[in-house]
User: Fold this.
Amino acid sequence: MTEAKTAAAHAGGNALVVFHGHGTGLFARWFGAPGFRHCFVCLTSGGYWTRLDFKIGVPEFEVLCADSFDLEGFYRNAGFAVAPAPSNAGQSTSAKTIWPLMMANCVGAVKKVLGLHTPWVQTPKQLYRYLKEQSHETAF
Assistant:
C-alpha cells in the first residue's frame, strides 16, 4: 500500500466485520442464522490489522498482519461473510442518541468498537444487513 493510501486508510478508520457460523454460545444457537452465529471486528492501526473477538464474553485482541495485506479477500476466500464498516469511534455523538447499555455478546462489542448507536441491531445477521445497507450494497 502506498504511503498516501495508508494515510487515507488510517484517517478513514478502516474496519472489517467478519461473520461466520461457528458460534458456540446459547445466544448464537437460538438466535443465530446459519453462517451468522458469531462476528468479530478487524481494524487498521499503526500499519497493522488488529482483531477484537468477543469470544464467550471474554475479549481477545490480536495483531494479525500488515495493513497492506488483503484481509477482506483472505476471509472471503475462507468462506466468511465480510462487511466493510466505517469506524465512528472517537467522533462526536452530540447529535445522536447514545444507547447506554451494551448487549454482552459479539454484536454489542463490535457496535461499541465501531461507535454504532443502533439498539435494534442485536444479532450478527442484523448487523450484517445494517452494514450492507450503510455501504449501499445489496444484503442477503
Residues 3-134 form one domain. DSSP finds five helices and five strands in the chain. The radius of gyration is 15 Å.
